[in-house]
Each structure stands twice: as structure tokens, then as C-alpha cells.
Design brief:
- By secondary structure, this protein is of the alpha+beta class.
- The chain has helices at residues 5-12, 20-24, 36-68, 81-97, 109-120, 125-128, 145-155, 167-170, 172-210, 212-220, 225-263, 268-271, 277-309; strands at residues 71-76, 101-106, 133-139, 162-166.
- Strands 2-3-1-4 form a four-stranded antiparallel beta sheet.
- Helix 3 (36-68) packs across helix 11 (225-263), helix 3 (36-68) packs antiparallel against helix 13 (277-309) and helix 11 packs antiparallel against helix 13 (277-309).
- The two termini are 22 Å apart.
- 29% of the residues are buried.
């Protein structure tokens, strides 16, 4: 009879009963499957990339909200330059006297021209489109509809052409897109976890089928289901640990490359998506989660299958 030498010797002795630990040692300690290590590595790498993207989007949204919290923009929409400048000056004086206003700033016309220059052409913005006067305003707390209405009422006499908007409202669609991307990352991470569990399940079933005869003999020699499951768990532990480490390294490289590409944009909003120490810790824990999922899946699969053998 072919099989492990210790099993052949046991058969030659007539299947004499052995202690449970000795019987469990008769089961070959072969890996569950060659590709399993690489499957786990790929899944971990993709999970690290998805989690990194989700964390970056979350940090970016939080940073943008923090920068815009309490920010209000006052636009003086008037085609006549003289009337526009007069209303802007009066509005600035009125706003500086209001309670709860921490800072006011009249944006220079040169700065406004630079903002629209990419669309209107260099040196032609003022002649093509009359730009509104812009006042950047900061309040000592969050901006709600009630505070906006108070500002509009205060400016109604001194600047009748003033338009008051919360700066956060401008980026409302952007924040909605960020939230969608974050939930997509969460869904993707969940799908990858399910895929990893399914791969381990199939590998465990194949390993059990390949060693079915040996397992039945081990049962006769006193081996328990828990001991047999432990052997398969040790096998998947090695594969998942090595695959998780390789996947973390690969995913970390991809996240770093993507971060460098976005940093090269030199955009103030994009720079808010950088990782914190906690974010890197979360990414580092992904391989550990992959190992736990693989071990739990392997044990449940083996124990359930062994229960059906007898």
C-alpha cells in the first residue's frame, strides 16, 4: 500500500490502535495547493490597494471639510466696475462689524484673473467677462442656512447685489462622489474577502478528497477530526502567511506609486489625502485578517467534510 512510511508501518502491524496524536501524524503534511499562496497574495494586494484608495478618499474629504468649515464667499455681481467696488468696500465694512466673523479678505482682481485665465486666455479675462468682487469670509463656527440668511440681511442695504454662499456647498457634488468611492472600496474589500474564502474552501475540499483514504485509516487508528483539521490549518497558515506578506509588499508598492502620482499634481485638495500612522497600521493588518479568514474557512470546511465521512 502506498502512502507515508509511518502509515505503511501501521498497516503492516494490522492497524493496531494508536494514540490520537500519533494517528494524526500519519496524515501527509503537504500543502493544500501550489497556487494557493499566489491567490492569497493577489487578493491581499488588491485589498491593500482598495483599502488605500478608500482611506485616501476619506482623508481627502475630511481635510476639505475642515478647510471649508466656517468659510463663506460673498460675491458682488455688478457689471459697472465703480458700483461694484463701492459695494465691495461697504460690504467689507459691514461684515467686519458683525459678531461671529473672525476674518474677512477682499480677493484682489489679479488673483481672480489668474483663476479664470486657463479658460479665458492670458490677459483677456477682464475684457471678455466682468469679474465679480469676491470677499472671503470666515465665521467662528459651522455655516448653516440661518447664519447665511443673517449675512444676507446684513448686506441687503450696503451691498444689494451681494450673493452669499457657504464654501462647502460648492463642493457638495464632490463630497457625494467621495462618499460613493468610499462605499465602492468597502464593497470591493468585502468581495475580495469572499473570494479568498471561496478559494480556501475549494483548496480544502480538494485536499480532503485527495487524502480521503488516508483520513479514513487515521480515523481507525484513533485520530480525531480536530487533529486532522489542525494539520490542514497548519498547511493553510503557511500559505496564507507567506501570501499575505507578499501581497502586502506588492500592494504597498502600488499605493506608494499612486500616492506619488497624485502628489505630483501639487493640488491643495489632493494633498489632503495623505496617509496617517493609523492608516498605515490598518493596511498592515490586512494580511493578518487574510490569515484569520483562511484559517477559519479551512477549519469549518474540514470539520464539516469530516463529519460527513463517517
Amino acid at each position: 500500500m502506498s502512502g507515508p512510511p509511518v502509515l505503511a508501518r501501521a498497516v503492516e502491524r494490522g492497524l493496531a490502535p494508536l494514540k490520537g496524536k500519533q494517528a494524526a501524524q500519519l496524515l501527509p503534511k503537504a500543502r493544500m495547493g501550489g497556487p494557493m499562496l499566489w491567490v492569497i497574495a493577489i487578493m491581499v494586494a488588491m485589498t491593500v490597494l482598495a483599502a488605500g484608495g478608500g482611506l485616501a478618499v476619506t482623508n481627502l474629504a475630511n481635510s476639505a471639510r475642515g478647510d471649508l468649515d466656517g468659510g463663506v464667499t460673498v460675491q458682488i455681481i455688478e457689471a459697472d466696475p465703480a458700483a461694484r467696488d463701492a459695494q465691495a468696500s461697504q460690504a467689507l465694512e459691514t461684515l467686519e462689524r458683525l459678531e461671529g466673523v473672525t476674518s474677512t479678505r477682499l480677493v484682489p482682481e489679479e488673483e481672480l484673473s489668474a483663476l479664470v485665465e486657463p479658460w479665458l486666455g492670458e490677459g483677456s479675462s477682464a475684457s471678455v467677462v466682468p469679474l465679480p468682487a469676491l470677499i472671503d469670509l470666515r465665521l467662528d463656527g459651522p455655516v448653516d442656512d440661518a447664519r447665511l440668511e443673517q449675512l444676507r440681511a446684513a448686506l441687503r442695504d450696503s451691498a444689494p447685489d451681494a450673493r452669499v454662499d457657504a464654501q462647502a456647498n460648492w463642493l457638495g457634488p464632490v463630497f457625494s462622489a467621495f462618499a460613493t468611492l468610499k462605499w465602492l472600496a468597502i464593497v470591493l474589500i468585502g468581495l475580495l474577502a469572499l473570494t479568498s474564502a471561496a478559494a480556501v474552501y475549494l483548496a480544502a475540499r480538494n485536499a480532503l478528497n485527495a487524502n480521503r483514504n488516508t483520513i479514513e485509516i487515521v480515523h481507525l487508528l484513533g485520530g480525531t477530526d480536530a487533529q486532522i483539521a489542525g494539520i490542514f490549518q497548519r498547511s493553510i497558515l503557511i500559505d496564507s502567511a507567506l501570501g499575505g506578506a507578499a501581497g502586502l509588499a506588492l500592494g504597498g508598492i502600488m499605493v506608494s506609486v499612486m500616492g506619488g502620482q497624485f502628489a505630483a499634481l501639487e493640488s491643495g485638495m489632493v494633498s489632503g489625502g495623505g496617509f496617517t500612522g493609523i492608516d498605515w497600521l490598518i493596511l498592515a493588518l490586512i494580511p493578518l485578517a487574510a490569515v484569520l479568514i483562511a484559517l477559519l474557512t479551512a477549519r469549518l470546511t474540514v470539520m464539516r467534510s469530516l463529519g460527513k465521512m463517517l
